[in-house]
Amino acid sequence: MASKGFRLGTVSAAVMGAVLAFAFGRVVGKNLDAVGETYDVVIASGRVMDPESGLDAVRNVGVRGGKIAAITETSLTGASTIDAKGLVVAPGFIDLHEHGQEPRNYQFQAHDGVTTSLELEAGTDDVARWYAAREGKSLINFGVSIGHIPVRMNVMHDPGSFLPTGDAAHRAATAEELTEMLAVIDRGFRQGALAEGMGVNYTAAASHEEIVEIFRVAAKYHASVHVHLRYAGIKEPTTGLAALEEVVAAAAATGAPLHVVHITSMGLKYTPDLIAMVEGAQRHGLDVTTECYPYTAGSTALQSAVFDPGWQEAMGITYKDIQWTKTGERLTAETFERYRKEGGIVVIHSIPEEAARTAVANPIVMIASDGMMITGAKVHPRGQATFSRVLGHYVREEKALDLMTALRKMTLMPAQRLANRAPAFLKKGRIRVGGDADITVFDANRVIDKATYDDPLQYSEGIQFVLVNGVPVVKDGRLVEGVFPGRAARAPISQ
Ligand SMILES: [Zn+2]
Fold this sequence. Notes:
The structure is a single chain. This protein is α/β, with parallel strands linked by helices. Helix content is 35%, strand content 21%. The radius of gyration is 23 Å and the shape is globular.
């Protein structure tokens, strides 16, 4: 139909478009489409919300080669088209804190709108092996930190799995052991670890000197240190605030960026004071950030050092506030002792609703799930439903914060947290031409968490379409089987 001359004109327009795209990074899709370009996937007529540019308007989004290639009011042609009329088109959610990094976790997370799932608190002691195990087999993008906890467990021959129960929890390291830990952590960074993980509450015998030395390695690689603080709770002198002082000082002294994980379970009723300290540190030029999950319970291993004597006073709770995930039963003094010997994960009902709500609503506090491996029938619901719970419960029902702020806390802010260390994150967490096509399309009027403490293995509702590197993994609210478009989210390898 087109004459030869028109065809040539098309090519030069396309080339011109590419030049313009390179120069201006945006609007080129409109030019290309005007001359008949087609896309792999078109997301048509959705309410595009981009926390970076502030765009909040009905647009068509064209995806090609795993990238966002067009954002335009002009209608686009694609090999497949998603009708997003009445739906929000947002950057895919980036979860900085998810311990469950197995296929089943990724399915739950995809249903919750997560396109990049990162294990940055505990991390791993073998970064190369961790990535190799997931390459080409993952529904969503994945990434990991080099973790002080597993490194300390390995170097000190701790018998625990996941969290320490022996020497790594309860003994100071020798000079030789510390030297070995620093070397293993350094190797993890050279293998592309995204960050450094730390959980001082679980390695309670680690000295202040050890903590500062571990921070120093992160500083060398411009990597953030994702810390579960030394103390959780409300009893002086071992409050969450005192523990925050330790790592703010380590960050200030070494230059390593600090990221405080699950600030609500650390601060409990003093959560606003902890957030105020993070805000103050930011105001005075320190690179300190934090995150929370939208729940009033934490979760961890009962055999860990968190439950060493004194836990009741520290957290202001007792046996009945602890729930055994294998059965859902509340503990007694007797079952506490028995299950602590047996070992397993518990849910800890310790966080006041006011603390959870304050953190979720605060614009500087990112959203991260702290999801767990699914080892019991009554696992904490947070790994399955954190993001839908924020959008459905706290944004729509409670009006605790507005939708754009919520999206910023689960997309742009986590991407910015990691971009210094891993420039790949400059292309995530945004709806921007040239960015990765990690996109979550949801119904803001319907999105809601379905997972509960009693019935935790339920998919969230209202997350209608999820694209990972341009490939749909959720379509019409249902999981797409047999696709593995997830890629390693990794810092540059330097060995
Ligand atoms: Zn933690």
